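Retro notes
What went well: the complex prediction finally ran end to end.
Inputs used:
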Amino acid sequence: MRERFTVVDVVIYLLLCIFALSIFFAFEHLLSLSFSPSYVATKGGIHLLPVDPTLDNYIKVLESKYIWMGYKNTLIRTVIGTTLQLLITAMGAYSLSKKFFPHRSIWTFMIVFTMFFSGGLIPTYILVVNLGLTNTYAAMILPGLVSAFNLVIIRNYFMSLPEEVEESCMIDGAGRFRIFFQIVLPLSKPILATVALWLAVGHWNAWFDVLIYITDDKMFTLQIVLRRIIITGTQQMLDLNISSEVLANQVQSSPEGVKAAAIFVATIPILAAYPFIQGFFVKGIMIGSLKG
Amino acid sequence: MQLPDRTLRKRYKFFSDFRLYKKHAALAVLFLPTVVYFIIFKYIPISGLAMAFKDYKIGLGIWASPWVGFENFSFAFSTATFTRAFMNTVIISFLKIITGFPAPIILALLLNEVRHMKFKRTVQTISYLPHFLSWVIVAGLFAQILSPTTGVVNYILKTYFGVEKSIYFLGSNEWFRGTIILTDIWKGVGWGSILYIASIAGIDPTMYEAAVCDGANRFQRLRYITLPSLMPTITIMLILRVGNVMVAGFDQIFNMYNPAVYKTGDIIDTFVYRYGIGQMKYSLSTAVGLFQNLIGFVMVVGMNITANKINGSGIW
């Protein structure tokens, strides 16, 4: 089907180029600002390469103890949260994957129902506060411990595994727990890896739960520190040397270059992992789109 | 008299099945944490919706607070702020559907016409990237790029397109919704196209070969093969999207709006956050949240029934 490269092709390639470049240059522009002194950002203009390259902005960001605490808290919630969520979800999914599990359809309905109707923000908030979870990692992990959607997807995968494998293990004398942990889980690595990545990216990017449940700034995660710096625009998170004159004005916001550097400091792990996880996600979306 | 017999047998089975938990004790143990989680973190908050019909006092707790019937609802409907938030939710959601829904389909169709695999893969990889970043980061990115004083977009408009005054993309009511919709497309279009690209890849290539033999040009192939083959996927996605009409995008708007654009940008979710968490008007905001939940529920269920009727491919 080799066809000539026509005007239509030119238009298509051009449109796609403009679209891809709008994403690429948004980051490229910000990247050069982050390496430029603050007067460059204040002056405005298009910058695809840093002017007067400097590391000042990054030094300021990395000197902030909040950035490092944010990194630590984000790592803790991502690792513990993802592990716990995956484990509990897989356990629940395994039981529900068994046709002989008592009241299976009632349990499934009870779980799937919450996908369509929930208590909403305020009742959940009051519950978490009443449980005394404010300012703990539990507040970032427990309220979203099991997602009905992930549970259904993992359950469907378990159901697609051949029944004979488990049966032969049973005959060999293995118990349910042993079969689950040593046979079923290893056999389900593809789906578990995909869901784990969804959960991990979710934790890395989560900010709202920290905003409402965490008031102690030692527990702030990266996204919230970042939100303070770039959106609320406070300098307090950066421990900059604020002159008394500026303090009197209070509303002085972080310099644009510093904001740009903060964005990259927080995004680099995702950008670095991106080429590797991207494929997994694409595969995952196809599994997720199958009928539950 | 078939019916009573059947219900009785069903009821008997329901109770006698409890014995089976002992038989499958290991499975029950594995399932226990899930049940406990759903009861505590999903069903207790649902019971907490009772707050919407009460005058919640922190000291008294949910159950001891006095009932007030529909007072919270009638109060909410009488305020201009709530009706505005409701209208904004529906309008923004509607605009997102008519522009944001076709966008990934168009992207997938454009990519399908590309014959250089390297180029195609590069565009795809770049297009997925914003999906992996939080709205905090994307909002920060656009706040800089769209800034009326130092932003690059205003610089280009002023320098090359003769625009005289800076445009306040995020600070003026004329531009806010448009900005919200465009940035939402920017972030989600690549990711949204995956499903359609996969559907296109699943189309039988012999159909195209036959069409070429019959002398169909690329527009005819698009019109008579690709689009009809995509139609089931498009229908389902559209129905599901319409079901979520009450979801206008809290993460995005909360990180991009400011008091200057409440008039066009304040949605129910941001309203609930400000009045509930911010001003601790728990009963009022719960009532508003419940109202939104109920509409959402009816829409999702209704749309799913429709999807199932059309070609049996709803999400359950």
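What we learned: The mean pLDDT of chain B is 89.
What to try next: split runs per interface for comparison.
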